[in-house]
Every structure is written in structure tokens, then in C-alpha cells.
Amino acid sequence: MTGPRASDPPLPAIQSVERAARMLGLFTVEEPQMTLGELTARMGMSKATVHRYATALRNAGLLRSAGGQYTLGPRVVELASAALAGLGVVAVAGPYLERLVLDTGETAVLSVWDGEAPVVVRVDANTSRLVRIIVSTGSRLPLDSAQGKVFRAFLNPADPDPELERVRRDRVAHYGAVVEGIGALAGPVFQGPEIVATLALVGTAASIDADPKAPLAQALRDAADGLSTELGFVDPGGRES
Fold this sequence. Notes:
- This protein has helices at about 10-25, 35-45, 45-60, 75-85, 90-105, 145-155, 160-170, 215-230, and strands at about 35, 65, 70, 105-115, 120-125, 175-180, 180-190, 195-205.
- By secondary structure, it is an alpha+beta fold.
- The chain folds into 2 domains: about 10-80, Orthogonal Bundle (Arc Repressor Mutant, subunit A), CATH 1.10.10.10; about 85-230, GAF domain (Beta-Lactamase, 2-Layer Sandwich), CATH 3.30.450.
- A 5-stranded antiparallel beta sheet has the order 5-4-8-7-6.
- A hairpin with a 4-residue loop joins strand 4 (about 105-115) and strand 5.
- The longest helix has 17 residues, at about 90-105.
- It starts with 11 loop residues before the first helix and ends in an 11-residue tail after the last helix.
């Protein structure tokens, strides 16, 4: 393979795409809207340049502006839906989440790793409950969440942290401080040798049993193992549930 020739023209479009992507990446669940001034400060460019990028993204439907605030536009939702459809685990996880809800009565959550943190990609709630626990698709979860612990444990199997070693041993992680009175239990989903997702149960602190040998943890492991098997995972160690 040869590198670019000296006569090759520069590629300013590549830089433009990178800057546009960086601007879109500034918006998060925790900070869904920003002013032009805030965007300018975050991007480290002139206000005029940031305004040109924001205008181009708005014309493409990737940003929208109202009342002096910019937010992600409707086109982002379409792209996110297409991205999720391309994730094999999302395509086949539905029945496993539905069964978890039926078997446990709790909210079932599927999350994937975005390179830095777990992101919720599907939520199945118990619709028969008078009061429901709402978990938003697209939410980015902290690294000390139940899902974060599972990803950290299996993405870095050499990490000697005692808590992560317990997660690897039990194939389940507990987090009791989602919000006050709410807890979560999560387990790993594998495709081949790699972890690709986590299944989690979210409920009241009283209903989410932290004991890895309790029926709730066993139901979660069974669902995660079933989904892993459907994705082609074969446990080389022949582990037992």
C-alpha cells in the first residue's frame, strides 16, 4: 500500500467531518442543550466558525435551534435507530428481556459499551405495575454502575480489583445507589470470546437482591447465558450456572 502522493490535494473535508462529529459529541443525556457561546468555548474555535458548523448541521437535521439553545436534531434519532438495528445483540435480545420481566417483575435493561461507558440500548418495563421505574434509552451509565462493573470486569480480565474478581466469579454485579431507593443487578452477554452487552434488572432497593446465589441473580444469569448462546458463545470452561 502506498501513501498519498506529493501531488495529492489536501483533504479539508475530512477535518470538517471530524469537527462536526466532535460538535455533535458535545451533547449528552446530562447536557442535552447548549448555547452558541458554550459550543464555541468547548470547540476552541472562533464564534463565526462554530456558527458555520452549527448552521450546516442544522440544515442537515443533525442540530436544531430554539430560544438561543442548540440541541440534537431529529436526523440523529433516525441514525441512532439505524445504528441499533445493526447491532446483532439488539436484534435478538427482545425475547430474553421480555422473559426477564415476566419471570422477575422488574425492569429489564440491555446496554452496550461505547468505548468509554455503558449505554442503554433497550428497556422493557413491567407495564402491569402501578408505579414504573423509567430508564431512558440512550442513557450513558457511570463506570461504577452494575453494568459498568460488568464491562470493566470482563473487558479487563487481568484487573486485580477484588470487586471485579467477584463479578467475574459470580457473573453478576450489584449497584445499590442508582437513585435513592433504586437498585440494579447486571450480568455479561458474550459473542464469541468477547463481552458485547450486559443484561440488567432495575427495581426498588428492597426487590433487587444483591446475593449472587439468590433466584433473581440466577434468572438474570440464565437470560444472559441464553442470549450469549444464541450469539454463538461457547463456554470453553464448561461453567455451571
